[in-house]
């Protein structure tokens, strides 16, 4: 058995014995894209911060990264600069971010946050200027439930969930994944 | 992130006196064991947007709360916050209530419902804030009843008894 094969066998045994799902992963976010994940996007409608409905179906034709986050979540905050960059880089090519806040207070907390909190994006102090909506437990249930934040879902132009990221996204990985869908 | 918010901690509750005489201060300790790899914000996180750990008793009639004692957290850095430390609790933390059963507290067995609120994260993601109910079971006795200090391993340090 080659060293590489041996390493994988050891790793697999380690997973079986310890149940430590993370043992063989190197990135901070746990991404999955097995065939079973290529399921249709759920039929959900978010509330915009000004009360308008924003359905996922209305974004069909675009590649969408739905990012469940909260203002109290430091890991969520840490990835916001990368998400602003994604929106900057790919919005003209048929991509959009959709940040779904899970803050309990909803608009009361989120609206001031997005208008006052700035993030360092390539040396510039930027607001979170991609589309922000309000999430809810009912909505995350339709995505299969949400254990932690941030959790993000990459949705293809034809409305399929092609990848799920649990935890802070690896910027290079998500760029690669978005580009693969454009 | 395999765990639900409520399953990240396990709690044990102890009272410092048995029984608790009316008019005498006693303490209730809630020992919070935090799952390996997780942390929760301390009672005084360094940033105002973070959700602090709190312990809130729902006092039965005749009981009074003098103080809630939160230990200081530890300043630790995490992969998602490599430059800025967070003030957190890890592994195990003991939160305490200083209470008195007043003259009107009912004699006999009593339960004090307590709500532990916390928000936990691991190195990559955070669980939603959660409120976990716990209960302190005590026995209230007359003011002149004999009482013994119990669980000195928990209450000796910082206790008024």
What is shown here, in short?
With 182 residues, chain A is an alpha+beta fold.
Characterization of the model:
The complex is a heterodimer of chains A (182) and B (161). Chain A has helices spanning 3-18, 74-90, 107-116, 137-142, 171-181; strands at residues 30-32, 39-40, 45-48, 53-55, 63-69, 95-101, 119-121, 124-126, 132-134, 151-155, 160-166. Helix content of chain A is 33%, strand content 26%. In chain A, the strands form two sheets. In chain A, strands 1, 2, 3, 4, 5, 6, 9, 10 and 11 form a nine-stranded mixed beta sheet that branches. Chain A has a two-stranded antiparallel sheet with strand order 7-8. Chain B has a single domain (6-155), classed as Immunoglobulin-like (Sandwich). Chain B has a four-stranded antiparallel beta sheet with strand order 1-4-10-7, with no helix packed on it. In chain B, strands 3-13-11-6 form a four-stranded mixed beta sheet, with no helix packed on it. Chain B has a four-stranded antiparallel beta sheet with strand order 8-9-5-12, with no helix packed on it. The chains are: A alpha+beta (182), B mainly beta (161). Chain A binds chain B through residues 21, 28-30, 70-76, 78-79, 102, 104, 147-151, 166-168, and chain B through 1-4, 49-51, 78-81, 86, 119, 121-129.
Any chance you could write out the topology, listing elements then pairs?
The complex is a heterodimer of chains A (182) and B (161).
Chain A lengths: L2 H16 L11 E3 L6 E2 L4 E4 L4 E3 L7 E7 L4 H17 L4 E7 L5 H10 L2 E3 L2 E3 L5 E3 L2 H6 L8 E5 L4 E7 L4 H11 L1
Parallel strand pairs in A: 5-6, 6-9
Antiparallel strand pairs in A: 1-11, 2-11, 3-4, 3-9, 5-10, 7-8, 10-11
Chain B lengths: L8 E7 L1 E2 L1 E2 L3 E10 L4 E3 L12 E4 L5 E7 L4 E5 L2 E10 L1 E10 L6 E11 L1 E2 L8 E12 L6 E2 L2 H4 L6
Parallel strand pairs in B: 3-13
Antiparallel strand pairs in B: 1-4, 2-14, 4-10, 5-9, 5-12, 6-11, 7-10, 8-9, 11-13
